[in-house]
Write a structure and sequence with these properties.
Elements (H helix, E strand, L loop, with lengths): L1 H25 L27 H5 L14 H18 L4 H21 L11 H9 L6 H18 L4 H37 L6 H15 L1
Helix pairs in contact: 1-3, 1-4, 4-5, 4-8, 6-7, 7-8
């Protein structure tokens, strides 16, 4: 029964990440009633092709109709989403408490990856986490959040080296996690950027995907 529970948790988590991938890719023109289709030949996918991770393996990474390669980002993010939730449960983390903030960040990560910007309206997804934190008597770091916003906004205004979306997202994280953790998140995110540069010599970065991964790492190990 325990194995079945963890399997269902993995499937649900990876399915949510898969849905967020579609939202991030299609927004603001997303149609919630549309059927998933191949990006190349636009053939409607069968139910087993939509099964997280396993569908990719069964298809050997190619569309069943046109044999075009399926982008690795789909199974990779589904797998990481499922593993993240299972690891959090195994470590005794309050996944329910921070689930809304991580859903928001994953959605922003895909938006930033595909389009280079995020939609502030989705900041409302973070509200349940703040409410849960207050109800559970967790501290909200108001001064840290204000300081983070002030410093990063000045960097954005004068140097243009950081986007306003990054400033706002880091401020939300600072309010929830405090001084030490927000510095760790920034450090991990920058380290991921450096690693990406060393591998691909990429010189400009859309920072939100790295922030999302870094926040997940810090959340699990802190």
């Amino acid at each position: 029964m325990t194995y079945l529970f963890y399997f269902l948790v993995f499937v649900l988590s990876s399915s949510i990440v898969s849905f967020l991938t579609v939202m991030g890719h299609d927004f603001p023109k997303i149609e919630f009633n549309r059927r998933s289709a191949c990006d190349n030949c636009h053939k409607i996918l069968a139910w087993f092709e939509l099964f997280p991770v396993l569908g990719y393996i069964l298809l050997r990474g190619r569309c069943r109709n046109c044999q075009n390669k399926i982008h690795w980002i789909y199974p990779a993010t589904e797998f990481l989403g499922g593993v993240f939730v299972l690891t959090g449960l195994a470590l005794g983390k309050s996944i329910y408490l921070f689930a809304p903030i991580f859903i928001m960040m994953i959605l922003f990560a895909f938006m930033d990856h595909y389009h280079g910007f995020i939609y502030p309206i989705f900041y409302i997804l973070s509200i349940p986490t703040f409410v849960f934190s207050i109800l559970n008597h967790n501290k909200i770091y108001l001064l840290v959040g204000l300081g983070t916003y002030t410093i990063l906004y000045l960097l954005h205004y004068f140097g243009k080296s950081i986007g306003l979306g990054d400033v706002e997202l880091l401020t939300i994280l600072a309010l929830l996690f405090g001084y030490n953790k927000i510095l760790s998140i920034i450090l991990f995110a920058c380290a991921l950027c450096i690693l990406h540069f060393l591998l691909q010599k990429k010189r400009s970065f859309r920072f939100v995907p790295y922030l999302t991964i870094a926040t997940g790492i810090v959340y699990l190990i802190s």
